[in-house]
Structures are given as structure tokens and as C-alpha cells.
């Protein structure tokens, strides 16, 4: 499988969405097809999110999704230098989302106790590896011209501006940004069965355990866990100059 992956041919016309797991993948899979289609609602109503912006092996798609570090990309990626949307998210919320997702998805390993999974997450022993390594790899990319950085938090704070920023990052001319913004509101995505994973059978993704679109870290982490998380965060990112939207005291 590794040999097959490294032989994948990336096309110069492609666009990449690079959020690490639980960092805004579904939202990006909603925004990008709407931008590419000029705001056509059918782009998010006919196909489920994982088919609209599929994974790397679907090499003919106009937009592809991956959760990989930059140094894990196949050689063809560096040859064509495609446009990349690097979506980041407060790692506390990434942890929270991952904890619930691992518990509801049949293909994932049971996360165990929350306190255990916290250490597993911070040590990078999770699917797609360390959040810290992923974020640093893309922030340190040599050619930043084709990499657009945006955060999940920015999407929440000002969704209209986030849609416009994403569109410009993909080099698309002005489209119906306001219409796209409305389609991508949390409440509207939650009602769209092609975006909320309700088309999955319960034996694959059991949303009776947790809704796919869920809440934030303050609903899960204890004060002591949050403090420990902050300590690890500061150590791992002490050399990073990028200013994140979220705050760590």
C-alpha cells in the first residue's frame, strides 16, 4: 500500500485540503465544492462529503482531502506544487472531536478512558500521527505561495470572510460568497444528510453514541487536564512564530 501511495500522480489542476483529523474536514468538504461549482447547491446535495472531496487515491477529482504531514506527500506533489488549504484547529477541540469519533466509528480503535486517550493524543499515537508535527510541517513549507492557512475558529468567527479567503486561496474569481456562506452554516450542514454522515449505517458510525457534528473541549476536559494540555502545547510549539486564532495563556 505504501508503494502504491508514493506512485500516486498529482495533477497540477488539483486542489488539496489538508486539515489533520477532526480539524474542519467536513466544513472544508462543504465550502470547496460550492466554490468550484460557483455556488451550485447540487454540489453538496447529491454526493456525500467523502465523495465530493475524496481522499488522495481518487486522483481525478478536482479537490482532494488528506490528513498527512507535508513530508509524507508523494513525489508528484512536489513536482506540480498544487494549491493547498491548510485547515488548523485548537488541538484541545481536535482531541475532543477525536475522542468522540473514535468511540462512534466502527473502523477506529476504542479510545478507552478519556484520561488515557489524552496521553495517547498528546504523544501522537493516533491516526495520522501528532497534531503538532502536522501543523509544523505545513507552516514550515518552503514554498508558502500555494499554501493558504486558515483555522476552524476563523470559519466560526467570520464565515463570510473565510469563504472569500478560501476562494482566493484557490484562485477562483468572485462567486456567490454570501450564498455559499449560508449553505455552510452549522445549522444547515447539520440538516444536510450528505454532510452529517447520517447516510452511514449505525454499525459503521453509531451516532446514538455521539453526533458527528459536536461541541467543544470545555464540555470534556477537566481543569487539570486542560492545564496539562497547555504545558505540552507550549513546549511543542515554542519555536513556532505563527499567530494562531486561539489563545493559550
Can you give a write-up of this model?
This protein is α/β, with parallel strands linked by helices and 249 residues long. It has one domain (2-236): P-loop containing nucleotide triphosphate hydrolases (Rossmann fold). Helix content is 41%, strand content 7%. A 4-stranded parallel sheet has the order 2-1-3-4, sandwiched between helices. The chain is globular.
Task: Throw out a few tags for this protein.
transferase; 41% helix; EC 2.8.2.-; alpha/beta; sulfotransferase activity; Rossmann fold; Sulfotransferase_dom; 12 helices; 249 residues
What's the arrangement of strands in the largest beta sheet? 2-1-3-4
Order of helices and strands: HEHHEHEHHHEHHHHH
The total number of structural domains is: 1
How many extended strands?
4
Protein name: Sulfotransferase
GO molecular function: sulfotransferase activity
Enzyme class: transferase
Keywords: Transferase
Amino acid at each position: 500500500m505504501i508503494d502504491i501511495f508514493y506512485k500516486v500522480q498529482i495533477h497540477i489542476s488539483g486542489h488539496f485540503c489538508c486539515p489533520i483529523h477532526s480539524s474542519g474536514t467536513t466544513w472544508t468538504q462543504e465550502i470547496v465544492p460550492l466554490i468550484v461549482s460557483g455556488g451550485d447547491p447540487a454540489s453538496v446535495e447529491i454526493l456525500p462529503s467523502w465523495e465530493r472531496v475524496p481522499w488522495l487515491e481518487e486522483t481525478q477529482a478536482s479537490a482532494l482531502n488528506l490528513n498527512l504531514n507535508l513530508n509524507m506527500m508523494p513525489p508528484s506533489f512536489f513536482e506540480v506544487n498544487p494549491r493547498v488549504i491548510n485547515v488548523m484547529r485548537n488541538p484541545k477541540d481536535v482531541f475532543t472531536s477525536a475522542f468522540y469519533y473514535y468511540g462512534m466509528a466502527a473502523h477506529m480503535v476504542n479510545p478507552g478512558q478519556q484520561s488515557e486517550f489524552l496521553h495517547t493524543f498528546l504523544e501522537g499515537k493516533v491516526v495520522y500521527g501528532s497534531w503538532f508535527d502536522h501543523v509544523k510541517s505545513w507552516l514550515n513549507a518552503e514554498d508558502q505561495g500555494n499554501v493558504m492557512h486558515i483555522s476552524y475558529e476563523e470559519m466560526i468567527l467570520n464565515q463570510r470572510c473565510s469563504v472569500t479567503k478560501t476562494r482566493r486561496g484557490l484562485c477562483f474569481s468572485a462567486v456567490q460568497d454570501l450564498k455559499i456562506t449560508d449553505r455552510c452554516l452549522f445549522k444547515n450542514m447539520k440538516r444536510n444528510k450528505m454532510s452529517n454522515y447520517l447516510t452511514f449505517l449505525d454499525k459503521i458510525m453509531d451516532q446514538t453514541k455521539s453526533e458527528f457534528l459536536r461541541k467543544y473541549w470545555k464540555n470534556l476536559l477537566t481543569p487539570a487536564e486542560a492545564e496539562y494540555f497547555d504545558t505540552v502545547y507550549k513546549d511543542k510549539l515554542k519555536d513556532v512564530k505563527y499567530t494562531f486564532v486561539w489563545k493559550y495563556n
